């Protein structure tokens, strides 16, 4: 049987353990096609509307961009122009020549790290769970991205994540309509 745990060996020159990954784990992301179909969502972070653009590869989320709101479209194509520059198109019409140019450094880093994880096969439910653990309230940028990506996540697994109420400490917290709600004291992660 093949073990799924990393194996540790001490074959390096300095006798320092090195980890080799099992055959099931790949560090190589699929090569990005020139253009990818995207789904476009609108969300709000701290009173500002955003378009969250989710690039799909074989029907699965492959990359994420968040740009200030400019369209009500729900789908388009995202074409790589050159390294770091992506044009949003629909048919022959260019909707935005460089969607990354409108993001600030923090937004670019967050969406780049999420995209890196997705390209390398990370479970999107795990990504959403990690974003939900970030500090900040429901209006923060990371929570806004999480609200969008949860559309692709395993809903049952998200709902079963144990969460404690910040007000009373109870574990009787349920995930309803995109919010964690305490059934004991009535506190909500969305209020």
Could you list some keywords that capture this structure?
10 strands, elongated, alpha+beta, 4 helices, disordered N terminus, 6-stranded antiparallel sheet, 191 residues, two-stranded antiparallel ribbon
Structural class: alpha+beta
Mean pLDDT: 81
Strand order of the largest sheet: 5-4-3-6-7-8
Largest sheet: 6 strands, antiparallel
Give, in order, the helices and strands: EEEEEEEEHHHHEE
Low-confidence regions: 1-22
- Gross geometry: elongated
N-C termini distance: 50 Å
Number of helices: 4
Strand content range:
25-35%
Task: Give the helix proportion (percent range).
Answer: 10-25%
Rg measurement, Å:
20 Å
Number of strands: 10
How are the SSEs placed, and which strands pair?
Blueprint: E1 7-9, E2 18-20, E3 35-45, E4 48-57, E5 60-68, E6 75-82, E7 85-90, E8 93-96, H1 105-119, H2 124-133, H3 141-149, H4 155-160, E9 173-176, E10 179-182
Antiparallel strand pairs: 1-2, 3-4, 3-6, 4-5, 6-7, 7-8, 9-10
Helix pairs in contact: 2-3
How does this model look, in words?
- It is a single chain.
- With 191 residues, the chain is of the alpha+beta class.
- Helix content is 21%, strand content 32%.
- The chain has four helices and ten strands, in the order ββββββββααααββ.
- It has helices at residues 105-119, 124-133, 141-149, 155-160; strands at 7-9, 18-20, 35-45, 48-57, 60-68, 75-82, 85-90, 93-96, 173-176, 179-182.
- The strands form three sheets. The protein has a six-stranded antiparallel beta sheet with strand order 5-4-3-6-7-8.
- Strand 1 (7-9) and strand 2 (18-20) form a beta hairpin.
- Helix 2 (124-133) packs antiparallel against helix 3.
- The chain is elongated.
- It starts with 6 loop residues before the first strand and ends in a 9-residue tail after the last strand.
- The model is unreliable at 1-22 (pLDDT under 50).
């Amino acid at each position: 049987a093949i073990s799924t745990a990393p194996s540790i060996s001490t074959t390096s020159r300095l006798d320092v353990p090195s980890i080799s990954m099992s055959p099931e784990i790949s560090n190589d992301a699929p090569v990005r096609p020139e253009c990818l179909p995207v789904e476009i969502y609108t969300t709000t972070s701290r009173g500002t509307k955003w378009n969250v653009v989710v690039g799909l590869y074989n029907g699965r989320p492959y990359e994420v961009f968040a740009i200030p709101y400019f369209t009500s479209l729900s789908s388009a194509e995202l074409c790589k122009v050159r390294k770091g520059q992506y044009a949003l198109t629909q048919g022959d019409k260019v909707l935005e020549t460089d969607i990354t140019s409108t993001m600030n450094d923090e937004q670019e880093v967050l969406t780049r790290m999420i995209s890196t994880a997705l390209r390398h096969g990370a479970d999107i439910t795990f990504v959403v769970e990690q974003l939900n653990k970030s500090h900040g309230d429901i209006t923060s940028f990371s929570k806004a991205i999480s609200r969008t990506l949860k559309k692709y996540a395993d809903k049952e697994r998200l709902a079963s994540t144990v969460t404690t109420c910040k007000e009373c400490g109870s574990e009787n917290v349920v995930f309803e309509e995109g919010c964690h709600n305490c059934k004991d004291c009535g506190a909500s992660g969305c209020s």
